[in-house]
Fold this sequence. Notes:
Elements: E1 2-6, H1 12-22, E2 29-35, H2 41-48, E3 52-55, H3 64-77, E4 82-85, H4 94-99, E5 104-108, H5 123-132, E6 136-143, E7 153-160, H6 167-190, E8 194-197, E9 200-203
Parallel strand pairs: 1-2, 1-4, 2-3, 4-5
Antiparallel strand pairs: 5-6, 6-7, 8-9
Helix pairs in contact: 1-6, 5-6
The chain binds 5-O-phosphono-beta-D-ribofuranosylamine.
5-O-phosphono-beta-D-ribofuranosylamine is lined by residues 7, 9-13, 86-87, 107-109, 175, 178.
Amino acid sequence: MQLAVFASGGGSNFQAMLDAIDAGRLNASVALCISNKESAGALERARDRGIATLVLDPKDFADSSEYDALLLESLEDHGVTFVALAGYLRQIPSAVVEAYRNRIVNIHPALLPSHGGPGMYGRHVHRAVLERGDRFSGATVHIVDEDYDTGPIVLQDTVPVQEDETAETLAARVLKIEHRLYPAALQLFSEDRVRLVGRRVLIDPIPDSQS
Ligand code: GRF
């Protein structure tokens, strides 16, 4: 699996993927790291490892089809077979979703379908969980479709919300489980064990010879 990782921020999930690759828990290589922000920490992590980087912000393109074409061309040029969004704050153009149908995933720091959608990122998500009084939060890895946070759910893991919880403490505990969950989800794709039946994601068991 040749990955492209899209990130707008520090890239701790990207780092978790790199660590999983190093540890032999994720059978993939990262061919390209894309960001809309030159200052994204994720780009530095990529450069440190000699991974190709690209900064592209759709806002800089008057003609969005030009942006779509450039993005697609870059993915193809780098032999990308799978895309992982890791804290990426721009929408993926439908032309790219179409070209990589069911081969783009995202991680969201809550239990979708709650607390997703436009504007639901970072602290906004954790505040919403606390304001609504949820007993549990968690992380969701889902397939990316044309909307925000609406695609089929691949894996989820939960954390209980504590009595003295703040958005900051919740964010930190959720992030910790994200770092385990995301590489595990990518490994399922790499092993070709993910099957979609309607909106349901079914995970095939490990074949006998490998278990
Ligand atoms: C994570 O909480 C992820 O769920 C969300 O954006 C955040 C990215 O954090 N999509 P990092 O840049 O990977 O540290």
